[in-house]
# Entry
Amino acid sequence: MEPLKDLKTRELVLNMGPQHPSTHGVLRLKLELDGETIRKCTPYVGYLHRGTEKLAEGMTYIQCMPLTDRLDYISSMTNNVGYCLAVERLFGIEAPLRAKYIRTIVSEMSRLSSHLLWLATHALDIGAMTVFLYAFREREVIMDLFEMLCGARLTVTYPRIGGVKNDFTQEFIDKLYDFLLDFPSKIEQYETLINVNRIWLQRTVGIGVISAADAINWGLSGATLRGSGVNYDIRKHFPYDAYDLVEFAVPIGKNGDVYDRYLCRVEEMRQSVLILKQCVEKLPTGPILAPDAPKFTLPPKDRVLNEMESLIHQFTLITKGPMTAPKGEIYVATEAPKGELGFFIVSDGTGRPYRMRVRSPSFIHVSVLPALCEGGLIADAIANIGSIDVVLGECDR
# Structure
């Protein structure tokens, strides 16, 4: 038997992904390991080859809408709303008050759906399978409501430039309110399962710590930023739609670890329920499309089906775009479930965007993975990826 002093060790390079299940998409991490310790972590993105921003330059403003569905396909409503707001501010369009409330409602429903999927998969990655089943149970109710509202569950294309596609029915409002009364008890179920679970605490507390200063310097946003104790929420600081008409709190963390990011998102779900209740109770009557901008907004569906002029107007607006578009550029940011989602649009006066660029939170959050993973264990990399809540459809845009 050879003496131990003659044994030699060497670093191992491990490629995690691009099809590893815990990455929730095609993300590859190149890990340089010393035993189970990660010495260096290098993320690689770009496997989807989507070209969304370039495709938008060949489409009219309305035709671009389905492209935004597919950025963060887990919360396509918020993508649609962010894009519509950017085009509206570029064109000087003001959506009616009822449409603003409706957009706020569907955005918060989308936030709940996104956080539920995140909680389910994040817990499953760490080993908590029951939470996965419970969270998908409630997410299914939200998907059914989306289907009732616009006929689609995932890529909805529901908001419109200047408003929304369909108005709420009383049946939809009743079912949504019933869900809001029941959902807080479901959140308590999730917390009962994992909040003080010994394994959950060992896998999350003190793991992937990032300070408030580092979180700001890395450009983090959303719950990933607020988990480090930074009180910044676009819905509060730069309110849009009906967010300035409702009361809600912004949960923030203390330690900036995986556990704090989990607590922030769970509390955000409670705050979303409060916002939704207020919006449903205050929902005003009125039109759902801007009536004073006929050159930019689509006519109501009933008029398209009964009036030749409205049919021609819709056809022209979709295929050629607005004939009198202003020149200029605009950047509008919204608080998507994963963080700050921004659209930068340059108009050259034609019916198509000259340039469109997207500031997606997932792309920014992937860049912080080396800081979170290096010096930790391989198993902690899984918890870190889940805690920053990335979708690779946003990264590879």
The two ends are 57 Å apart (CA to CA). The chain has 17 helices and eight strands.
